[in-house]
Amino acid sequence: MYKKGEHAKSTPKDPQPGQEADYDMVHYGHSNQLRQAKAMGDFLIVGVHTDAEISKHKGPPVFTQAERYKMVRAIKWVDEIVEGAPYVTTLETLDKYNCDFCVHGDDITLTVDGKDTYAEVKREGRYRECKRTQGVSTTDLVGRMLLMTKAHHSNMVSSYYQQHTDNFGKGPKGHSPWTGVSQFLQTSQKIIQFASGKEPQPGDTIIYVAGAFDLFHIGHVDFLEMVYKQAERPYVIVGLHFDQEVNRYKGKNYPIMNIHERTLSVLACRYVSEVVIGAPYAVGKDLLDHFKVDLVCHGKTEVFPDKDGSDPYAEPRKRGIFRIINSGNNLTTDDIVQRIIENRLQFEARNQKKEAKEMAVIEAMKRREQQEQSGAAAQ
After folding, report:
1. Lowest-pLDDT range, 5-19, 112-126, 193-207, 334-348?
2. What local confidence, expressed as pLDDT, does residue 117 receive?
3. For the whole model, what pTM was predicted?
4. How far apart are CA 341 and CA 146, in angstroms?
5. Domains of the chain as residue ranges with CATH
6. Which of 97, 198, 258, 298 is surrounded by the most beta carbons within 10 Å?
7. pLDDT tens per residue, range 255-303
8. Over the stretch 314-336, which tens digit does the pLDDT of each residue have?
């Protein structure tokens, strides 16, 4: 949604089919949608639904509404959020928040009874759409979590992986193009679009943190917000470990997201200035000197030793620039995976129900198109 004002852009002339996102398990696909939406105007207002609304229309959310509100606020292209936004977007809602138009993805969002949630605003020409980000969806991420092998990034075509994604993203009549799993292809352009492009300025405090930042979630946001508050003019650099390194110290099927996906997820956070892709595990002299780091922070989670058993933070400790940060949030990626596993059957039912509705709409659209073609041929 966009707030009206002196710089607001004109309303769209050609309404298009669109999608509503509940911002559950916020990932870089959501962030990319918001980045595109912000580029259409000057002030971006994002409506986020309650748990009750999502449960009614789609099924149980993974995150609570309070967690989702905070996650969306942390995305750097968002200017304001509306808590408890109605599931169906109406002209009344747009006018209430002084918005010129609303924006959504190029897929479709349906109510519990199969109706387009954006029908009214489309009819009135106050709807725009942006492109869906290929290669990521909640369906895909849930499938990866349940696939207890570290090969899910390189072996997504395996029958074992397909079995999980079919359970989560396939209705009784086949795959919907909006729910199915696709491959994510990283490009330098995408990184540029997400990056701030800002260099540290004289007087900035350069703060370095490192980790996996897998399934970027509210625990990470709370930690980075506290890191950001450690200085008056913070410049926060996040070092992301390569997938093999993360798997070495975390094991199981981690990381759930590969290094390219984790890069975009972290870059979308408003508290982050720069990302080091494939940062060394040990925070050594070369890294600290190269980035002129003033402060190194780590959360309350365990610090795993390096391959040789040494402390990866030995150098910043020696320099007296190491600080443990207590964000007050103990949520971990493990906890999120546990939520999914405990509610697996519910999530399977949720996604199958969603896809069945989408397939019904696709069939109706095909029938209408055939009827129109038949009518045109008859004339």
Report:
1. 5-19
2. 81
3. 0.78
4. 7
5. 17-130 (3.40.50.620), 188-324 (3.40.50.620)
6. 298
7. 999 999 999 999 999 999 999 999 999 999 999 999 999 999 999 999 9
8. 999 999 999 999 999 999 988 98
CB atoms within 10 A of CB 374: 9
Cβ count within 10 A of residue 89? 25
Find how far residue 128's CA is from the centre of its chain.
20
What tokens does 108 get? 């479709």
Cα 314 from Cα 269, distance rounded (Å): 28
pLDDT tens by residue, 164-215: 333 333 333 444 343 344 466 788 998 999 998 899 999 999 999 999 999 9
| Residue whose tokens read 């509503």 | 20
| Residue 161, both tokens | 């992986």
Structure tokens given for 171: 């209705």
